[in-house]
Amino acid sequence: MSSGITKTASGGPASTARLRGVAWYQHPRWSRLTAMVAIAVVLTMVTGEQGTDRDIFFALREDFTGPLPWIWLGLCLLVWTVREFWSEPIRKVRRASVAKSDPPVAWVRGQWRGDRRIRQLVLAALVAVAAFAPMGLERYWHQVLVDQIAIYVLLAIGLNVVIGWAGMLDLGFVAFFAIGAYSAAFWTGALPVDPPFELNNFLVIPVAVLTCLIAGLILGAPTLRLRGDYLAIVTLGFHEIVYITAKNVEDFTGGARGVSGVEHFSIDMGFSYEWKLDPLPYYWLLLGFIVLLVFLFMRLEHSRVGRAWTAIREDQVAAAATGVNTVRFKLMAFAIGASTSGIAGVAYASKVGYFNPENFPLLASVLVLAYVIFGGMGSIPGVLFGAAFLVWLPEVLRDYVDPRDRYMYLGALLVIMMIYRPQGVWPSKRRQRELKMATEGTVDGDATAAPAGGKVS
Amino acid sequence: MSTTKLAKEPEGTEPTAAPALLELRDLRVFYGAIEALKGVNLSVREGEVVALLGANGAGKSTTLRTASGMLSPRSGEVLLRGERIDGIKPHNLVRFGIGHVPEGRRVFARMTVRENLEMGAYRFKSPDQDEMDRIFGLFPRLAERSSQLGGTLSGGEQQMLAIGRALMGKPELLLLDEPSMGLAPLVVQQIFEILREINQQGTTVLLVEQNAAQALQLADRGYVLETGTVAMHEEASALLADPRVRAAYLGEIAE
Ligand SMILES: Nc1ncnc2c1ncn2[C@@H]1O[C@H](COP(=O)(O)OP(=O)(O)O)[C@@H](O)[C@H]1O
Ligand SMILES: [Mg+2]
Questions:
Q1: Number of C-beta neighbours around residue B127 at 10 A
Q2: For labelling alongside A446, which of A10, A34, A112, A379 has CA 20 to 30 A away?
Q3: Is B60 in the pocket of ligand 1 (CB under 6 A)?
Q4: Which residues belong to any copy of the ABC transporter domain (chain B) (predicted)?
Q5: Which residues of B touch A (CB under 8 A)?
């Protein structure tokens, strides 16, 4: 009996010590190490032997018995070591060079901060590179650039308005893309029903934008009082309605067989010029829209509209009490997002000429959402990068891995990213702040805050 | 009993000539089937501080929400300077000079103090810097924390910020819902001092409070709500002396 008492007596303080203590693996340094090891494993699988259907363990056996994992592990550990142990000296050197106002560094920084024209010039140069660099690429990459990258970047900057700025979780976003594509098919006479008059593809763009805008309002109006999960479900339903309609109303949409023979863009003014199969004109058209919309949206972000969206995202009651028309701005976000994907839809339909409802699966909505979150919700450069990178990645992986496995690696990347850098690659200042506060327990966050085991930092 | 029940009095019978800035007439408000306000009559004259007291669930917040347009009454009228304003949406009512500091403060947690104040001036093209300086003058603690995030402020500071944000909209009538809730006595005192100052600078105040002692010291007149009806309506000093009020709200045993 007495031994039991001593056990509890000594067990008390011992267990509090255990609870108070921070296990070594909870230190952020080690959790970052785990991340690097995970990346090394993924890279080994990407670059190593690919699996076969006959022997499911073949790839794992081959990959992890050779030198490959050690090479990747070594590289990743090197990165980690530099980050953990040499970052301070590096930072010191950099700080010293700035403090000494080392002429070139300080000068460049000063110019960048001080002079608007320099910033504009650099941006113009970037756009020029984006416009002309692809001319040196192979035809395959031209296709990828247009059919995939440019289209998804456009979709992502549209969705960013809805979710990143107005804070509304929209899982049916690709429905608007579909509506844009079917509008293009309808007005160029590719659907089973004839339009009242046929339009040139360029003229279809404003018509499709208007159609999507109205569709956005139709989706937005009944969902105004919903938030978060509930809104997500409603938008999911909206996507399903559009998708099934496209599939089943054969007399109007062509049903599951799809639409073929959507005309290419053409210019017919005295001279006539049709964009045939060369993807580059489409790329430039889309790039033009992306640049234009990025410019407009950046202005919007810092305008009264952007402030209203931020306020609504934070607290709708308080926003209304300060004079924000919450209904109008929520609808506006929906409509802007929808019209952006309408543009993408027209360009896509005209470019590929043939499409069917399977081109607009729910997965596409989810992927666009993933691009936005990966890049950094609410941050335009982040979203541009996120979409471009994540669409590009499976395409390059095609050369290294079994094409059927490509999305698995994308999935692994997203998992690693969300665990170790939930704010995204290039987060907006505001989102970064939100996440930090959520971790500290000051306010609710969208992404979850501290892990259940407690966070040390 | 010296309570004057305010029963459907026409405007003219009020002793003072000043027209009521805000008047609630026979207001009935429902939440679904629940009748939260069962015919409330209340008036606030220009320049006054009016306190609205009552137990939890009496309908104080409902009254304020109806006055600021967040709720629409099923019957009855809300009048601002004699014009009906019930049914006008809250974001439009802000333009008529009604500022609402909602229950639980509701500062924008992830905006800085300055951004919160700028948001308060949303109805103007750009925030008035002089007004901002005036508010920072009223609340020096906010000035010190102008770039701190709203959500990281203490309760008292958040209340100050909520009041400051409402003031940025330059309201004629400030509706305050329990500004003392959950705050230390000293902080409550500070906030009431500032409310007095705000009132002296020309803003009319309708104040919902549980803290009857503080509220009645500040107020000119007071109303007591009980389960959706006005039970008492008197000069603040008379209410403060009323044994029933003292028993119910000041923790004294009624003789
Ligand atoms: N959103 C709501 N839905 C249903 N009933 C409500 C709602 N808000 C308040 N009530 C009810 O209305 C009555 C008055 O509430 P309220 O005005 O908040 O009281 P007070 O502010 O005086 O404490 C209470 O009985 C409360 O339960
Ligand atoms: Mg209340």
A1: 18
A2: A34
A3: yes
A4: 22-252
A5: 68, 70, 89-92, 94-95, 99-100, 102, 106-111, 118-120, 122-123, 149, 151-152, 165-166, 169
Give the residue extent of every domain in chain B. Answer: 19-57+66-88+220-255, 97-204
- The highest-level CATH class for domain B97-204 is alpha beta
Report pLDDT for A103. 64
* CA atoms of B44 and B29, how far apart (whole Å): 19
Query: Does the Cβ of B54 fall within 6 Å of ligand 1?
Result: yes
3 state SS of B76:
strand
Rounded Cα distance between A75 and A68, Å, is 11
User: Over chain A, what is the mean pLDDT?
Assistant: 84
Q: What is the mean pLDDT of residues B165-169?
A: 95
Pairing of strands B221-226, B204-209: unpaired
Claim: this prediction has a pTM higher than 0.80 = yes
Region of poorest pLDDT, from A91-95, A246-250, A387-391, A392-396 = A91-95
Residue B178 is which amino acid? Answer: E
pLDDT of the residue at A432: 78
**E strand or H helix at A345, and its extent?**
helix A326-352
User: Is it true that B19-57+66-88+220-255 and B97-204 share their CATH fold?
Assistant: yes
Task: State the angle between helix axes of A28-47 and A68-81 in degrees (0 to 180), rounded to the nearest 10.
Answer: 150
Q: What is the CATH number of domain B19-57+66-88+220-255?
A: 3.40.50.300
What's the average model confidence in pLDDT over B35-43? 95
CA of B101 to the centre of ligand 1 (A): 17
